[in-house]
Amino acid sequence: MKTIQVLGLVLALIGLPSATFAQQSSGPLRIEITDGVIEPLPFAVPDFVAQTPAAQEFAQSISAVIASDLAATGLFREIPKDAHIARPTSFDSPVQYSDWKAINAQALIKGAVSAGADGKLVVKFRVFDVFADAQLGDGLQFGGSTGSWRRMAHKVADAVYSRITGEGGYFDSRVVFVSESGPKNSRLKRLAIMDYDGANVQFLTDSSSIVLAPRFSPTGDRVLYTSYETGFPRIYVLDVGTVKRRALDVQAEAMTFAPRFGPDGRTVVFSLSQGGNTDIYKMDIDGRDAQRLTSTPSIETAPSFSPDGARIVFESDRSGTQQLYVMGANGGEATRISFGKGRYGTPVWSPRGDLVAFTKQANGRFHIGVMRSDGSEERLLTASFLDEGPTWSPNGRVIMFTRETQGASGIPALYSVDISGRNLRRVPIDGGASDPAWSPLLK
Amino acid sequence: MNTGTYISGGAHAALIAWALLGGFFLSADDPLPVRTTEVSLLTSAEFAALSLPSAAPAVSDAEPVPALPDPEPDTAPTPPANDDNPEREQPDTVRPPVAEATPTPPESAPAPEPVNPPQPPVLTTPPVQDEPTPSPDQEAGAPTPAPRVAPEAAARPEPDTVVADTVNPEVSPDASAENPAEEKPATAPEEAATEIVTEAEKPTTVMAASRRPVTRPARPPATQTPAAKPQSDAIAAALAAAAAPTPPPRSAPSGPPLTGGEKDGFRIAVSTCWNVDVGSRAANVTVTVGFSLDKGGKVVGGSLRMLSAKGGDDAAIGTAFGAARRAILRCQSSGYKLPSDKYSQWQDIEMTFNPDGMRMK
Fold first, then answer.
1. How many beta-carbon pairs below 8 A join chains A and B?
2. Is B116 in Cβ contact with A34 (below 8 Å)?
3. Fewer CB within 10 Å, N- or C-terminus of chain A?
4. Which helix (H) or strand (E) holds A431?
5. Which among A134, A255, A343 is the nearest to B237, CB-wise?
6. A298 phi and psi angles, rounded to 5 deg
7. A162: phi > 0 → left, psi -120 to 50 → alpha, else beta; which?
């Protein structure tokens, strides 16, 4: 009998919540979604409408570059043009959303190009959220010379990317790198610059001396790099527009290398090796106000400023192995942030300020990874025989780095990877390439 | 409407009272029931006969167990000798043998200038699409026959499709054709995934694991109501949508609520269209969206609006809302499959999109 009583009590207590739920269900139905999918967003870019006969040759090329930019992010997938149902013939014609829904296009980019006899090109576009039956933001247009059609296409792609993702783009940017040729034991190295996607490669130096580690200024008009022109490493600053350069005004007898601009564009932080000891220094680009930031008997190098200029991340072997440390912009006590197995090096602070990218060597393999600036949430994005030298895209979303294949015939190449670890792809460049540095977005 | 609730509450109260107080109404003197079982006596000989173990089966001579193959030696790639940090290279006085021409200043394309944006066109109302006629559900067919073991081995499966950006069918040469086509394998893009496996996480011959910190820093909670700060386009659009004509007034829900299975079906239907960009700031945003459904399970025009969001700035919130809106609208197709007799229970919906479990960690 007692058993029946206890059973009845339990049943009653179990039944109570359902009565309560019946009372609560007078409101709307509440559902929580916690699992989604990770897939590229399908978009459609019909060929831009050529509004003048001279624009005919640019219309198709511009829409192709826009599609290529977006698809290369791995976040978007272009729907092939032969799958389109609607074929816009006018920029102002209304959008038949049902035609685009039918092919599952979630975003539609419509544009037009006109070219005048004076060589001026005008590109205009609109972005549509197909399933919301609405335009995303206002229409926008860019004007420039016909020679800058690629930059205009990149700018359109940046605007589209920004409207869909809510974050800034990175397509209208450039990358400076070390172009390499010749056999592995006698490589010819010269500085080169290209569009972010590998187009328009141009050389900045000749190959008479070894050059290393070019770094853009925050405005993208100057490059710091290390040259062995005098037989030992020395830092130079080069004006990208005029290709004129000058040596940084530091002690002539010291070896200086691993330079990087501060976010103000005037401060330079670098490594100086003298008497067998390597420390980090800071000075004005004109050679004034030199300041020693570290003073330990170990090797401190590869400094990189935080975006706000308040801190510096660098690598040091003061603990016995090569690890990452963070210190204030004026030196002082450094805090170790890397604790995993292996060696960490070449740290670079993200433009967003939240992450630090680095090179890691462990168990005979090299990795490009990211961690928070306090050292937490370390994630390795790549793994290969030799990956090194990460650089951030202007929006902090993509990392470009050097990957070298094994063996005497191995050549270095540039690769990029999304910070999620997806979309690893090689940057198409003829010949060898290493040490990339991404510029800010061009003005 | 509350009759059922009152009856249920009353019945439960009575049941609890009976369970707690029922003992008072029972007599303590009632004799306890006694179970009886008949037994019979066995002699020791009979017991021994019953408890004898059965004869063990004859064991044939076992074949020797084959030895396991020796494990393959690790094939760790040899790291390059002291070549991991080019910035630490020592001075090299060897000059390259050939000097190339001094470069000329690079031609940089002139910066395009943004000019006045074009006026938005006057959009005509698109033609009304005919509502698709729902097809009656197929009648339940005959029960599926039980699988049987085939007398012959199955044919080899088709080869895997090659991953590519576009979908292309397999092309095989036709022997009878005058110019047989070149053989090409089928290609298709990679499938969508629910998680990311980076190159570093793929299994290799060498372990490449790194220690994951035990805890992650807590992010400051940030809750924003878009009505207070309508800054981004998406938020403005959400507000405009909220200001749009509201769906017809609903009657209070009646009848039984949705079952767990019905809710799960609805949840899965939307989640398959919820595309999460795990690397974006929008992946930190949890957004709650309100909308109404008509009796066919389709979203009532203009009812979709953002109710609340937390965890990001305006741009990230706008992006998160856009992704949630696309998920709801894309997957409705001809209407969500919900029980029509419980329409009052799912007429109005508040759906929360929480990417916490998908975010990169």
1. 415
2. no
3. C
4. none
5. A134
6. -90, 180
7. alpha
Answer whether B352 sits within 8 Å of A226, measured CB to CB.
no
The two three-digit tokens of residue A126, written as one number: 């609109």
B264–chain A Cβ distance below 8 A for any pair: no
At B176-225, the pLDDT tens digits run 666 666 777 777 666 566 677 778 777 655 444 455 555 555 555 554 44
Q: Does B218 touch chain A (CB under 8 A)?
A: no
Query: Cα–Cα distance between B82 and B88 in angstroms, integer?
Result: 10
User: Least CA distance to B102: which residue of chain A?
Assistant: A206
Residues 130-169 (B) with a CB less than 8 A from some CB of A: 165-166
User: Do the Cβ atoms of A442 and A172 come closer than 8 Å?
Assistant: yes
> Which 3 state secondary structure label does DSSP give A391?
strand
Residue B202 has a CB neighbour count (10 Å cut-off) of: 9
Domain extents in chain A: 41-165, 174-438
CB contact under 8 A, B106 and A11: no
- CATH for A174-438, options being 2.120.10.30, 3.40.50.620, 3.90.1150.10, 3.30.70.1450: 2.120.10.30
Flag whether residue B249 sits within 8 Å of chain A, measured between CB atoms. Answer: no
Q: Rounded to 5 degrees, what are φ and ψ at B359?
A: -65, 150
- Residue type present at position A288: R
Joined together, the tokens standing for residue A152 give 């205009």
* Residue A15 to residue B92, Cβ atoms within 8 A: no
- What gap in Å lies between CA B168 and CA A84, rounded to an integer? 16
CATH number of A41-165: 3.40.50.10070
Cβ within 8 Å, pair B102-A123: no
pLDDT in tens, B216-274: 555 555 544 444 444 556 666 666 655 555 555 555 666 788 899 999 999 999 999 99
